[in-house]
């Protein structure tokens, strides 16, 4: 007999995650913390399921709960179902190479100062693939965030569940307005106002260790974000530490100079993916384009010069 018209006697599906968490923890309070719900919401979800099934799933005594035999059976089935859904969603996400959209998570400063000005060229060369750019920094959860790839400065521990593919090594150095170096600072970094970012407060110290420079600041100014510190340098408010990709276009256009050159910071920029980039044609295409756009950036060469020495303009 056909089961096409079989009526399913399922409990409220929206309540099952609450039940599963409560059953796994044997605690409504811990389930509420995990799911960011109230204790009452967990209790109501469990009660809905019990009403539908006509059986008790928990024994409740003295603010503690234990699973009944029926609860144990439902937990086993619910866990298997939710795990199966998680696996299916991850499998779909991993193998959606035919999608016309590639969702990219990128650190805000890198996105605004390097990636976004180049995406027009990517679109012209690849009109059938659209880049959905998300601005975010730090640890990433590709599946939870709905992203295919992430571009990060690898200055934190990246989960081993991801594939990290090196893009280029970071080089950085002091940058300032072209006229500022000679007319205001007289070629002496210790005469400068040093611009800092609270999102990367150790940028100057990292550069000093990498370059062996022992200069000290004449004065200092702090900004909430690295992007603002770099823009302040363009606007002649002082001297900032400029990582090469973030100041490349300003150096090339002559808005900034790097009078003391660039030194390797010891950090890499990486592409973070669920699988090796060549498994997905969209990611492979984007990765190859990134590397072509980066050019010789990995060696710290500045636009127009092999390296810029003291007192030399771009």
Automatic annotation (TrEMBL):
The keyword DNA-binding applies. GO terms for biological process: DNA-templated transcription. One of its GO terms (molecular function) is DNA-binding transcription factor activity. Keywords: DNA-binding, Transcription, Transcription regulation. InterPro entries: LysR-type_TF_proteobact-type, LysR_HTH_N, LysR_subst-bd, WH-like_DNA-bd_sf, WH_DNA-bd_sf. Coiled coil: none annotated. SUPFAM superfamilies: Periplasmic binding protein-like II (SSF53850), Winged helix' DNA-binding domain (SSF46785). Belongs to the LysR transcriptional regulatory family. This is LysR family transcriptional regulator. It comes from Thalassospira lohafexi.
